[in-house]
Amino acid sequence: MALQAWFMQESDDDQRLPHHKNPPESVSLEQLADLGVLYWHLDPDKYENDPELDKIRRARGYSYMDLLDLCPEKVENYEQKLKNFYTEHIHADEEIRYCLKGSGYFDVRDKDDHWIRILIKAGDLIVLPAGIYHRFTLDTNNYIKLMRLFVGEPIWTPFNRPQEDHPARKEYMKSMAEEVGLPVAAN
């Protein structure tokens, strides 16, 4: 099953709602790839012993992995954490998330600064490039189990917008100006 993404309707309603425009405007994997967003669909039931996941990890240098259950029952200060995740930010490194159970939304900014909402469900592995403005929230099911992957030691430092002078943002903007889209690898 392919990843679902669409341009968002700006709204102050519950962040966990889909926020489709009327009429809806879908976003393709190719459009996401043009922003540097990568995607694979894997079998989440075999994440502990998946040759395809191992191949991706080796090829991209993802040496660190941990698991996160994100729901009100398992996360202290859940509402505050969700609010923090939903604050627009960048990272100095890629953000790699593999959804094992549940669902949620990653929102990314396109080249014209419009929000694109990406629904991730079990089996979706997504890579957001360093320097892209993004945010995360759960959907109304209020549950997601994620595998977090990193190159080397994990760094979770978010740099809230504006960050136009941050080296990762500058590098990202430079890559966008060169109009070099990254290839999509979807299964």
TrEMBL record:
One of its GO terms (biological process) is L-methionine salvage from methylthioadenosine. It is a peripheral membrane protein. One of its GO terms (molecular function) is acireductone dioxygenase (Ni2+-requiring) activity. Ni(2+) binds at residues 89, 91, 95, 134. Pathway: Amino-acid biosynthesis; L-methionine biosynthesis via salvage pathway; L-methionine from S-methyl-5-thio-alpha-D-ribose 1-phosphate: step 5/6. It holds the Pfam family ARD. Its main location: membrane. Keywords: Amino-acid biosynthesis, Cytoplasm, Dioxygenase, Iron, Metal-binding, Methionine biosynthesis, Nickel, Nucleus, Oxidoreductase. InterPro entries: ARD, ARD_euk, RmlC-like_jellyroll, RmlC_Cupin_sf. Fe(2+) binds at residues 89, 91, 95, 134. It is found in: Cell membrane; Cytoplasm; Nucleus. Gene3D superfamilies: Jelly Rolls (2.60.120.10). It comes from the Eukaryota. The keyword Transport does not apply. Binds either 1 Fe or Ni cation per monomer. Iron-binding promotes an acireductone dioxygenase reaction producing 2-keto-4-methylthiobutyrate, while nickel-binding promotes an acireductone dioxygenase reaction producing 3-(methylsulfanyl)propanoate. GO terms for cellular component: cytoplasm; nucleus; plasma membrane. Belongs to the acireductone dioxygenase (ARD) family. Catalyzes 2 different reactions between oxygen and the acireductone 1,2-dihydroxy-3-keto-5-methylthiopentene (DHK-MTPene) depending upon the metal bound in the active site. Fe-containing acireductone dioxygenase (Fe-ARD) produces formate and 2-keto-4-methylthiobutyrate (KMTB), the alpha-ketoacid precursor of methionine in the methionine recycle pathway. Ni-containing acireductone dioxygenase (Ni-ARD) produces methylthiopropionate, carbon monoxide and formate, and does not lie on the methionine recycle pathway. This is Acireductone dioxygenase.
